[in-house]
Amino acid sequence: MRQTEMARQLFTFIIFLTGAVTGLQLIIQPQQIEEGVTQTLDINCSTSLGAGSDFVTLVSLVLSLATISGGQFNDLASVDSFSGQVVNLGHGNLTVFGNIDNNGESFLGARWSSPGLQETGVYKCTANGLDVTGQPVNVSTSSQVNVKQSEIQALKAELSKMKADIELALNNSCISGCWQNKLDVMMELMFTSSTVRNGHRYLLSTKDNRVTAPVAAATCVFFGGYLAEIDDVDEFLFVQSFVNSSDFQMTLIAGTNDSPNGTWVIQRTNQPMPFTKWGLGQPIGSSGVNCAYLNSHYNWDMDVYSCYNLETAYNFWPRFVCELPE
Questions:
Q1: Do residues 264 and 256 make contact, with C-beta atoms less than 8 angstroms apart?
Q2: What mean pLDDT comes out for the span 130-156?
Q3: In whole angstroms, what is the distance from residue 203 CA to residue 139 CA?
Q4: Could you tell me which residues are beta bridge partners of residue 187?
């Protein structure tokens, strides 16, 4: 590496940009690259839930880039609380890493190898989640990466075009239902949908999700519904038939007895469960075992298990069912 480049990297100042959500930070190093010389470009976004945060539950972090030539934001990488997986959205020389932790720090990072002109522009980090009222909310912060060129006039022209393009992209971002479109895509990736019954449809998470019962409930709210609430035998048989599968063992539904008198209630309304069909010998009450499930061991009748320590006894993570009014 040339000495000038080594010196430039040594004295590069890391810039922290804080957006609308308390603690949302975007760190980029370096903020100016020299094509053919700069070896790596690192982009890191992080946040922690706490006092002053806009979120009660963080659902996902997304990194996107509006390039000098393109002008519109395209997603680069994402991490979500449903699967815990970090997704590289089709960029071969990009390495991504991250984690969602609603009890600590959440982060999403990306590294370009041998970055060039196509990796310059405005980088944006978007945090998606639920606020204290249970409503979906998304906030973002952004920072610009420039390219170092030998011809000053060419650089000025490119920066001028980038400014105009990015302003246009920012002004036109997330209009005409793009937020709903993104929700629909996420829903298709994370859930299997039932047919519509009495104006409601049901979503079954498509893989073992490393989430606790409260986070599963918040996820259902995020997509416009709630944990499936069984009102009568007909609805029970419909949901039972929908989840009946040989490739997993348990699925969470609405229902808890985590109350002073031990009554089984619906979490959302705090009203008694209108219908129950427990498996043989259930429910067996014990400390910390407070949530209702459908269990294949009982032919998909109701079972009771922990709301939090979901992996301890069975060495797997249950799925969950959301109910969405149409």
A1: yes
A2: 72
A3: 26
A4: none
CA distance 149 to 170: 26
Residue 16 near residue 25, CB atoms below 8 Å: yes
Q: Sign of the C-alpha dihedral, residues 231, 237, 242, 246?
A: positive
For 72-130, how does the pLDDT look when each residue is reduced to its tens digit (9 = 90+)? Answer: 888 888 998 877 788 887 666 788 999 988 877 889 999 988 887 788 889 999 998 88
Given 3-state DSSP classes, what are the helix, strand and coil percentages for the chain, each rounded to the nearest 5? 20, 35, 40
Question: Which candidate, 140, 116, 130, places its Cα nearest to that of 40?
Answer: 116
CA 287, distance to chain mean position in Å, is 31
**Which pLDDT score, from 0 to 100, does residue 161 have?**
61
Per the CB < 8 A criterion, the answer to whether 66 and 163 are in contact is: no
pLDDT grade, residue 45 (50/70/90)? very high
The pLDDT of residue 4: 33
Assign 29 to helix, strand or coil.
strand
SS (H, E, C) 46-86: EEECCCCCCCCEEEEEEEEEEECCCCCEEEEEEEECCCCCE
Alpha-carbon distance values, 99 to 61, 63, 312 (Å): 9, 13, 21
- Secondary structure (DSSP) of 190-248: HEEE---BTTEEEEEESS-----HHHHHHHHHHTT-EE----SHHHHHHHHHHH--SS-
**Count of positions (residues) in the chain:** 326
The predicted pLDDT at position 293 comes to 93
C-alpha torsion 108→114→117→123, nearest 10: 10
Token digits for 36? 């053919």
Local structure of 10: helix, strand or coil: helix
- Assess whether the previous peptide bond of 214 is cis (omega < 30° from 0): no
pTM of the model: 0.51
